[in-house]
Design a protein that fits this description.
Blueprint (H helix, E strand, L loop, with lengths): L5 H13 L1 H9 L10 E6 L4 E6 L2 E2 L1 H13 L3 E6 L8 E4 H17 L7 E5 L4 H13 L2 E4 L6 H11 L3 E5 L2 E3 L2 E3 L1 H9 L7 E5 L13 E3 H6 L10 E2 L3 E7 L7 E6 H15 L7 E4 L6 H13 L3 E5 L10 H9 L3 E4 L1 H8 L16 E5 L5 H11 L6 E4 L33 E4 L11 E7 L9 E2 L3 H9 L6 E9 L5 E6 L3 E4 L2 E4 H9 L6 E9 L3 E9 L7 H15 L8 E5 L12 H9 L15 H12 L1
Parallel strand pairs: 4-17, 6-7, 6-8, 7-14, 8-11, 11-12, 16-17, 16-18, 18-19, 19-20, 29-30
Antiparallel strand pairs: 1-2, 3-13, 4-5, 9-10, 14-15, 15-23, 21-22, 22-24, 24-25, 26-27, 28-29
Helix pairs in contact: 1-2, 3-4, 3-10, 4-5, 6-7, 9-10, 12-13
Bound molecules: ligand 6R9.
The site of ligand 6R9 has 24 residues, from α10, β20, β24 and β25.
InterPro entries: Ac_CoA_lig, ACAS_N, AMP-bd_C, AMP-bd_C_sf, AMP-binding_CS, AMP-dep_synth/lig_dom, ANL_N_sf
Pfam families: ACAS_N, AMP-binding, AMP-binding_C
EC number: 6.2.1.1
Length: about 625
C-alpha cells in the first residue's frame, strides 16, 4: 500500500484517476471485511449521494484492534504522556487496548446504548478518550466528540442537534497549570438536554463533582460490572461512524457525518503513505481528539495500521517550551505531526529550549491546520528536523476525513509553504467565481474537488439540504472546499486560506457569524461585525467591531464583559483578540456589511480602501479608521 518513489507516485496517481474504482478496491483489500462489497462506488454530487463499498460489512475496531492481536498483541498501541512530566506515562498494548475497548463497549450497552444511538464524548486527552471512541464504534454507536474547550451552551447545542443518549466525560482535565472542570460544564449543559439518559464519568483530576442519582455513574465502577468479551457489531460500509461538529459561514456549527467503510480505508491509506510509517515506530500527533486530526491521525489511521500512537495530555509550553522536545527524546518519537501555530509559538522562545535535546529519532515531520509560513517551515526543518526530515504539509478538512493534498514523505520533493500535490484518488480543480475551471499552471482560484474519495463527508447530521447547499451548490458537480489556492509553475498547490467567512485561529475553525451572534447576546450590544486579521502566532486573530451605545468610560471592563459572554456562549477559543467600539458599521445600501473594509482596518492597512462610494454612510469609515488608531 506504500508508495516509495516519485515515479511510483505518478503511476499510482494516473491509475487512481483513470480507474478509480479499481484503484480503491485494491487499497480496500488491505483491510479486514466481514463481507466484501458488491459495488465500489456510486455517486452524484447534485444530491449529494456518495456511497463507497456498498454491500460490504465490517467493524472498524476489528481493523484497529482484533486483527493486530496475533502478531502485535504486545506492541504498544497507545503511549500516553501526562500533562505533568513528573507523573508516569502509560503504555497500552494492542491486547490491553482491545480488552479495555471491549469492556467499555459493554458498559455502554449496559447503560442502554444501542447500535445507531449517538454518544457525546467530552473528555481530556487521556487513553480512556480513545477507548470511549473505539467502544462506540465497537457496538455501532455514533460518537460525537466535543473538544474540551467548548462551553456548556456549545455542548448543549451539539447534544441536542444529534439527540445524544449518553455522555461520557471526566471530573476534570489538566491543561498546563490550569484545571478545567469538565463535569461541571456538562452539568450546566445538561440542564437543556432532555435526550440524555446517562452520564459516565471518569475519575481523572479528582476534583469534587456532583453526581446525580439515576443519571450519573463512575467509569471505574461500571467497568467492574461487565466482562471483557464484546463481539464487534457488523456494520454496513455506509453506516454512520461518527459526527464531528465544525464551523461554517453561518451561525450554527454543522455535524459532519463520516461512515464506516470509506473513512477507514481513507484514514488508514493516507496515514501509512503520507508519514511513511514503518512497523515499530513511535508516531506523535499533537492534536486533540476533539478535532478531526485527532480522530483520523491519533486514533483510526494509526491504529488501523498497527502503529504506536502517542497521546499527549498537555500543552507545548508546560512546564516550559522544551516539552515537545522532551517528549520526543523520552519516547524516541520517529514521526511528529503538529500545527503551524505550535511551531510559531515555540519559535518565539528561540533555540535554547531545543538545545541539548536528542531529536535524532525523528524521521518525518508533519504540519496541519492552517497555512504554514516560510519562516516557520524553515525553523521546523532546521531546528527540529536538522535538515534531515521531510516535512509533510498536509492540507485537508473535517469534511474530507483525511489528508488530501500533501507530500508523501521521502517521495514528493517538498517546497516551503506548499502542500505540493494531490494524493492518489484526489482530483483537485481551481475555479473562478463563476465556477469556470482555471486551467494551466501559475494560477489562483477557489479550490474544489471533482471526484469523490472514500473519506469524504456523506451528509450534515439531520440536515442533508444544508450539506448540499454548503458544499455542492456553489459550483455544479464539484465539492467546494471554501479555500483559496495557488497552483504554481510546477503544478504545486499552495493553500492561501479561507475565501468564506471562516476564520482559522490557531488551526481552529471559527465562523465569524458564530462570534457575532455570541457578542450580540451581550446586553448593551446592538450589532457587531467580526473579521480575521494576520496574527503572528495564531495565524489569524479575531477582530470585532461592536456597536454599543451608552458605553460608559470604562471601555476595558466592557471589553472583558463581552469576552466573558463569548466564552460562555462558545468557549474561550472564540474570544476576540481585539474589540473596537464604533457607532456604525460600513454597510451597502442593501444593508450588507462591507467586510472588505473592516478586514483592511483590522490589518492596519487603511491607505487604500477601494471604492466606498456605494456605502450608505461613508462617514462611518473615517470614524472607524480614527478609532482603530487609538486601539
Ligand atoms: C485538518 C483540519 C480545515 C481548514 C481548511 C484550511 C485549513 C488545514 C492546511 C490548511 C493550509 C494546510 N488548513 N490544513 N491550510 N495548509 N496544510 O485542519 O481540518 O479543522 O476542518 O480545518 O483548515 O483552510 O479548509 P479543519
Amino acid at each position: 500500500m506504500q508508495i516509495n518513489t516519485f515515479e511510483e507516485y505518478q503511476e499510482t496517481y494516473q491509475k487512481s484517476i483513470n480507474q478509480p474504482e479499481e484503484f480503491w478496491a485494491g487499497i480496500a483489500s488491505n483491510f479486514l471485511w466481514k463481507k466484501k462489497w458488491d459495488n465500489v462506488l456510486s455517486w452524484d454530487f447534485a444530491s449529494p449521494s456518495i456511497k463507497w463499498f456498498e454491500g460490504a460489512k465490517l467493524n472498524i475496531t476489528e481493523n484497529c484492534l482484533d486483527r493486530h492481536l496475533a502478531e502485535k498483541g504486545d506492541t504498544p498501541a497507545i503511549v500516553w504522556e501526562p500533562n505533568d512530566p513528573e507523573k508516569e506515562s502509560i503504555t497500552l498494548t494492542y491486547r490491553v487496548l482491545h480488552e479495555q475497548v471491549c469492556r467499555f463497549a459493554n458498559v455502554l450497552k449496559k447503560n442502554g446504548v444501542q447500535k445507531g444511538d449517538r454518544v457525546c464524548i467530552y473528555m481530556p486527552m487521556v487513553p480512556e478518550l480513545a477507548v470511549a471512541v473505539l467502544a462506540c464504534a465497537r457496538i455501532g454507536a455514533v460518537h460525537s466528540v466535543v473538544f474540551g474547550g467548548f462551553s456548556a451552551k456549545s455542548i448543549a447545542d451539539r447534544i441536542n442537534d444529534a439527540a445524544c443518549k449518553v455522555v461520557v466525560t471526566a471530573d476534570g482535565a489538566f491543561r498546563g497549570n490550569k484545571q478545567i472542570q469538565l463535569k461541571e460544564v456538562i452539568d450546566d449543559a445538561l440542564i437543556g438536554c432532555p435526550t440524555i439518559e446517562k452520564v459516565i464519568v471518569l475519575t481523572h483530576t479528582r476534583t469534587p463533582v456532583s453526581m446525580l442519582k439515576g443519571r450519573d455513574c463512575w467509569w471505574e465502577d461500571e467497568i467492574k460490572l461487565v466482562d471483557s468479551n464484546c463481539p464487534a457489531e457488523e456494520m454496513n460500509a455506509e453506516d454512520m461512524l461518527f459526527i464531528l461538529y465544525t464551523s461554517g459561514s453561518t451561525g450554527k456549527p454543522k455535524g459532519v457525518v463520516h461512515t464506516c467503510g470509506g473513512y477507514m480505508v481513507y484514514a488508514g491509506y493516507t496515514f501509512s503513505n503520507v508519514f511513511n510509517y514503518q512497523p515499530g515506530e513511535v508516531y506523535f500527533c499533537t492534536a486533540d481528539i476533539g478535532w478531526i486530526t485527532g480522530h483520523s491521525y491519533i486514533v483510526y489511521g494509526p491504529l488501523s495500521q498497527g502503529a504506536t500512537t502517542l497521546m499527549f495530555e498537555g500543552i507545548p509550553t508546560y512546564p516550559n517550551a522544551s516539552r515537545f522536545w522532551d517528549i520526543v527524546e523520552k519516547h524516541q518519537v520517529n514521526i511528529l505531526y503538529t500545527a503551524p501555530t505550535a511551531i510559531r509559538s515555540l519559535m518565539g522562545f528561540g533555540t535554547a529550549p531545543v538545545q541539548g535535546k536528542d531529536l535524532s529519532s525523528l524521521r518525518v515531520l508533519g504540519s496541519v491546520g492552517e497555512p504554514i509560513n516560510e519562516e516557520a517551515w524553515h525553523w521546523f526543518d532546521e531546528e527540529i528536523g536538522k535538515k534531515n526530515c521531510p516535512i509533510v504539509d498536509t492540507w485537508w478538512q473535517t469534511e474530507t476525513g483525511g489528508i488530501m493534498i500533501s507530500p508523501i514523505a521521502f517521495v514528493t520533493p517538498t517546497k516551503p509553504s506548499f502542500a505540493t500535490l494531490p494524493l492518489p484518488g484526489i482530483q483537485p480543480i481551481l475555479v473562478d467565481e463563476q465556477g469556470k475551471e482555471i486551467e494551466g499552471n501559475g494560477v489562483n482560484g477557489n479550490l474544489c474537488i471533482k471526484f469523490p474519495w472514500p473519506g469524504m463527508l456523506r451528509t450534515t447530521y439531520g440536515d442533508h439540504e444544508r450539506c448540499r447547499l454548503t458544499y455542492f451548490s456553489t459550483y455544479q458537480n464539484l465539492y467546494f472546499t471554501g479555500d483559496g489556492c495557488l497552483r504554481d509553475e510546477d503544478g504545486y498547490y499552495r493553500i492561501t486560506g479561507r475565501v468564506d467567512d471562516v476564520i482559522n485561529v490557531s488551526g481552529h475553525r471559527i465562523g465569524t457569524a458564530e462570534v457575532e451572534n455570541a457578542i450580540n447576546m451581550h446586553a448593551g450590544v446592538i450589532e457587531s461585525a467580526v473579521v480575521g486579521y494576520p496574527h503572528d502566532v495564531k495565524g489569524q486573530g479575531i477582530f470585532a467591531f461592536v456597536i454599543y451605545p451608552g458605553l460608559s468610560k470604562d471601555e476595558d471592563l466592557t471589553r472583558k464583559d463581552i469576552l466573558q459572554t463569548v466564552t460562555r456562549i462558545i468557549g474561550a477559543i472564540a474570544k476576540p483578540d481585539k474589540i473596537l467600539f464604533v457607532s456604525g458599521l460600513p454597510k451597502t445600501r442593501s444593508g450588507k456589511i462591507m467586510r472588505r473594509i473592516l478586514r483592511k482596518v483590522a490589518e492596519g492597512d487603511t491607505s487604500n480602501l477601494g471604492d466606498i462610494s456605494t456605502l450608505l454612510d461613508p462617514a462611518v469609515v473615517q470614524e472607524i479608521i480614527d478609532k482603530s488608531k487609538q486601539l
